[in-house]
Amino acid sequence: MGNEKILDVAVVIPALDEERNLPLLLDRVVRSLGEAGLSFELIVVLDGGSDGSFEVLRSTLPAGRGGGRQGRPQGSELRPSLPKVGAATRQQTPSPGEAGDSPACAGEGSLEAPLEDRETMGDSAARAGEGRGRLVVVKLERTVGQHAALAEGLRRVTAPFVVTLDADLQNPPEAIPAIVEKLRSGADAVGTIRKDRNDSLGRKGASMLFRAAFAALRPRARISDPGCMLRGYRKEVVDEWLSQDGKAYYLPLQLGLHAKTYVEMETPHSARNSGDSRYGLAGLVRLFGRVVRGRLARWSLPQAAPVVAEVATGALAPAADGVSGPPVADAGKGGRGTVVVLGYGLVGRACLQAVVETGVRVAAVYTHSQGADRWQEGLESDAKRLAAPCFVDVDFSRPEEIELLKSFAPDVLLSLYYRDVLPAAALRAARLGGLNLHGSLLPAYRGRAPVNWMVLNGEEVGGATLHVMRRKPDSGPIVGRKEFSIEQRDTAYDVLLKVRDTGVELVRECLGPYLAGRIVPVQQEGPVSTFGRRTPEDGRIDWSLPARGIYNLVRAVTRPYPGAFADMPDGRRLRVWQAEEAPDAGPLEPGGMREETGEEAPQRPSGAGLLVGTGTVPLRVVEWEWEG
Question: Which domains are delineated in the chain?
Answer without folding.
Answer: 9-324 (3.90.550.10), 338-531 (3.40.50.170), 536-627 (3.10.25.10)
